[in-house]
Amino acid sequence: MSDPTEEQIRRVKTNLTNMIAFNQQLQIEGNVKIENAFALLSISDNKDLGLQIGLNLLCGSISAISGLAGPVGSIGGHFLDGVVGHYADQTPPSLSGSFASLLSRFQATSEQLQLTLEEFYQDPSANWNTVYSGQVNTPFTSYTASGSLSELSTIDFPSQEVPEFTELLEAAQFSLDQCVWAQLLTNFVITKYYPTTQYPCKYYTEQQMESNAASFYGVHPSYYNTWTYVNHVHKGKDKSYYNYNQNNIGDGPSAFSDGHLSDQACQYLFIDSYDNVIINPKGLFERAFVFTQMTGIPHKTKTYPHAKLF
What's the pTM value of the predicted model, to 2 decimals? Predict the structure, then answer.
């Protein structure tokens, strides 16, 4: 392959400068997101969750820009994620030890990316065609991201002075928040209560079931209630009903408590009450996703005496 031109090197150096500024701002805001999550969930940040978790947080946050700003976000995001993800295979000394907390692990990972970008800036041609590749893990998906310095010569990553920089940064901050909460929620448990409650259709419509669920969440925001229609005819009479299930996220039930997640944490966490009923547009996840699709959260069951409503 031919050597890069002076113009290509200049363009890559400009992009690296802007990426360094982007990473610096992301670290500052990321520190706040991590501290806020631990505070709302009332758990202590007093242990290192390991190299891969630190990589997941930074890669997961950066992944958000890959779908924004056309080729700029795609190429820039995949390059940055490839560089960070590559640390899993070739771990820098700065990340090989243990840390006191998740916050310090995230800070060290971000600072290592800073050093790597600064090294690239000194002599882009030395690693011009090297492809950096690594795994990106988010609460929603996993994939391999890769990129090279030569690809950066085809885009113009935004500087701090333009609105596009803020757009990319805010997307990355939100994605980081999602990644942090998805990781910390594995400290809790989702409990499904048995037996189910039966609501007769002659008294309850689908709309009433939805309304009941939304009202219930207003008082018990840590719950996720579902129901299924059961067509039942007994001695020629329609006895159809809804099977009503209750699920709760928190520490798990005890003799005198359902162990629910705090109201403040739930208000920050959930976008909706019942499906598609928005209660917090800035929330992190849809309720159904947390309870049915988010990986890593333990699930258990609890049986209580229950009475039929008919």
Answer: 0.94
